[in-house]
Design brief:
Strand content of chain A: 5-15%
Largest sheet of chain A: 4 strands, parallel
Radius of gyration of chain A: 22 Å
Shape of chain A: globular
Number of strands of chain A: 6
Number of domains of chain A: 2
Oligomer: homodimer
Chain lengths: 196, 196
């Protein structure tokens, strides 16, 4: 196309990202060409750094540059509540709400029969529950098929322990209109109605 | 937010890109963490390479890793037609059409009174026209205010030379419905009607 191969290579790499189409990748590549050399090496360094230095927290599997992540080691967090999520990005979403101040455990996946995943390695989680420091778990897996199966799986595995088990509330989202809500959610919200 | 600083730094860098919001930058950062280490260093290298090795072609200002770009040096291109565009990305768009086989000249900007740009350095272009190798120029600046002013500027500067001057056709785009076309374009298309 009249442009140097290394330029097309970069566009190729950028269009691998989720949600980044060919056109966006082109715009990003043009933008990179116009950036200050210092900014470019900074960007390249940051990309390499996250992979080089970030590993799962030994306690909760959250992203961390230390053995124990900043959440697990924070003196400000409640140490007896554990929110179980599928992926580290779920932690980001929950932290943004400022409504939760306990600890997390990241499953790094979910039960997914379609992908042949019918079991999860939760030894680390069970050992932690067995140590009796956790009084409450809040199962916050996604409200989809795999997430619900994962929740059932966790409930079964955790029931033998002396711990209160909660599931995050599923219902109609704020700011929506009932007429537009899918009927599965609406039905679930009616079944799970809360006394006032 | 419970994630390592280097992770937030990366999100920060990625959200600088045009069209990349906070959420997309987060998704890209999560994706980078899951990439193979080899792919990550490849991506970082490609980002640095484009800036390190790409410079303007000495003849036409197009992106090039060589003194003269692949289009200017191609034996397959017509050497007496010159398409004048504002930016290298316009070359990419025109090349995709496969409807043009001449050479290019990139202005690297446009007349823009609002930005205080009322003149363009086109010495290199004029010397090339003066050398009498170009028989036709096609002014392909954007059909907006600045692009039209730039076209007028070029017409004035090029008129003294023995060269046929064209402006790329402006009119109603293919695949649209006349009722939805903005009236400026529609008016221009009527004025510029073509005999059949």
């Amino acid at each position: 196309m009249g442009f140097p191969k290394i330029f097309h290579d970069l566009i190729e790499s950028l269009s691998q990202f989720p949600g980044v189409g060919r056109r966006s990748a082109e715009r990003m590549a043009f933008y990179i060409l116009k950036m200050q050399p210092k900014e470019v090496s900074e960007l390249a360094r940051r990309i390499e750094d996250v992979q080089k230095f970030i590993k799962p927290c030994a306690l909760c599997n959250n992203f961390s540059t230390e053995e124990i992540c900043s959440l697990c080691s924070s003196p400000k967090r409640e140490k007896d509540v554990l929110c179980i999520v599928e992926e580290p990005k779920d932690i980001m979403a929950i932290e943004k709400t400022s409504q939760y101040n306990g600890l997390y455990y990241v499953l790094l996946g979910s039960i997914s029969p379609l992908d042949g995943i019918e079991d999860l390695n939760i030894g680390k989680l069970l050992r932690r529950i067995a140590s009796n420091q956790i009084k409450e778990v809040i199962i916050s897996t996604d409200p989809d098929n795999d997430g619900e199966l994962t929740a059932q799986f966790l409930i079964q595995k955790l029931s033998p322990y002396k711990v209160k088990i909660y599931r995050i509330a599923i219902g109609i989202p704020l700011g929506t209109q009932i007429e537009y809500i899918d009927s599965a959610t609406l039905g679930k919200a009616l079944m799970d109605r809360k006394p006032v």
